[in-house]
Amino acid sequence: MALARPKEDALAARLGRLAPQATTGWLAGAQRAAEARLLAMGLPTRRDEYWRYTDPASLVAPDAPAAALLDAASLDSAPLDSGDEAPVFGAIERLRIVFVDGVFDAAASDDLTLSGVEIDRLAEVGGRTAHWAAESYGRLEAQGQLPVARPFAALASARAGDGLLIRVTGQAARPVALHYLRRSETAEATLHHCIRLEPGARLTLLESGPAAARLTQAMEVEVGPGAAFHHVRVQGRDHARRAATHIFATLGAGAIFKSFTLTANGRLTRNEAVVTLAGPGASAHLAGAAVGDGDFHHDDTVFVTHAAPGCESRQVYKKVLMNGATGVFQGKILVRPGAQKTDGYQISQSLLLDEASQFLAKPELEIYADDVKCSHGSTSGAIDATALFYLQSRGVPRAAAQALLVLAFLAETIEEISDAALAEDIRSRLEGWLSRHAAAGAA
Predict the structure, then answer these.
(1) Does some domain include residue 123?
(2) Could you tell me the pLDDT band of residue 435, with boundaries at 50, 70 and 90?
(3) How far is 240 from 284, CA to CA, in rounded Å?
(4) Percent of residues, the chain, with pLDDT higher than 70
């Protein structure tokens, strides 16, 4: 069916501002296929069911809306909203890979050699006739277009200017850390990463930084039998930035997938995750903590499919909203026929620190097996007045007491991070954000 004229025009204008597709090598065919998917579905509008709570207009616009830069001296400092903290993940021994305005920065990056891991750049190897990623690039993204269209994921596949192709054959000697920096107020970044973990392999992937005024990103992760993938992401700092990110993952027998995202600040952020537990005994844990102030809009849209027996999934998402901020959660657990002994858990909660903020939730279960344990819940409320009074009666100032209760509220999401050092780093970022905003409110 042909697209309506307004959608067709909007898509043409958006594509016209992006870098052209690859013209040679295996990547050219993959990007042509992705663009064909995109042309068939068009870019979303507020009328689309899964965009009813989030206005995609600024993501659809031909040019990235300008986003003011922080002081250039703090480009690689704390990824929340200040340059007075140590660099995020700075205390973690890691392989550091830097992108500036969506472009790989070799001078700022470490050597890409890492025991047990092969790392290539999409921009460098896409023109070859063969590469392991040729059979992976765009495959999970294409599968993830049903039953819900995800146009910005197809856009990332069709027009990615760069990205990483990571193949893990053993246990990675240290985490791989992607730092996304920006130097332009109107930077547009379109990235696509492909990650494959062979059977029994292990990798921790870290992501941080604002990336661009507008970021469109897709990440495809294949976790082989018995392999383990741990992902920790921090989005923050530049408040005016906008982002549409996507993680597509498939898990083999006994595989482990864990992903945690902390978001602080950002005019508009939409994080989508589409995970399929394809092998028996696989486990997927997805968690997110978001703290927002003012014209902050944060959307987590998650789709987990149990396609094999004996699998476990957890979705734990919490948002703290103040001064008119908006939070959205759309989460679904689908249990396919034959996926007996499924254990699926989903919770989405918000803490509203004033009456102007709002939380919109759409939790879903769809089950076609009879021997399962699935639950979901969604709540929204204010700070517990009794607990706040108790802390104040013990001499804790009101702002500090409120910060303690907020951290306690978010604790369940941070517990999903397996590495204690990474969890502590995330906790300290939250404490810093809360204290700065408490100080600003007192002023």
Answers:
(1) yes
(2) confident
(3) 32
(4) 94
| pLDDT tens-digit series, residues 105-137 | 999 999 999 999 999 999 999 999 999 999 999
- Structural domain includes residue 417: yes
Domain boundary among 279, 302, 336: 279
Same domain, 272 and 390: no
Written as one letter, the residue type at 49 is E
The alpha carbon of 117 is separated from its chain's Cα centroid by a whole number of angstroms, namely 22
Cα separation values, 90 from 152, 300, 425, Å: 31, 27, 9
Question: Cα–Cα distances in Å, from 116 out to 109, 119, 332?
Answer: 19, 10, 35
The Cα–Cα gap between 152 and 144 comes to 12
The rounded mean pLDDT for the chain is: 92
Helix axes of 385-393 and 398-414: crossing angle, nearest 10 degrees = 120
Query: Residue 411: which domain range?
Result: 383-443
End residue of a domain, out of 251, 279, 307: 279
Residues 21-48 pLDDT 10s: 999 999 999 999 999 999 999 999 999 9
Task: Based on the fold, state whether residues 68 and 199 are members of the same structural domain.
Answer: yes
Same domain, 62 and 208: yes
* Virtual torsion, Cα 366, 370, 374, 376, nearest 10 deg: 40
Q: 271 and 139, same structural domain?
A: yes
What's phi and psi for 418, nearest 5 deg? -70, -35
Task: Assess if residue 359 is contained within a domain.
Answer: no
Q: For 63, phi and psi rounded to 5 degrees?
A: -110, 145
DSSP letter for 171, please. B
| 402 within some domain | yes
Structural domain total, the chain: 2
Reported as type and span, the H/E element at residue 162 is none
State the average pLDDT over residues 304-323: 97
Give residue-wise pLDDT tens across range 227-237.
Answer: 999 999 999 77
Beta carbons of 361 and 348 less than 8 angstroms apart: yes
CB burial class (10 A; 0-12, 13-18, 19+) of residue 130? Answer: exposed
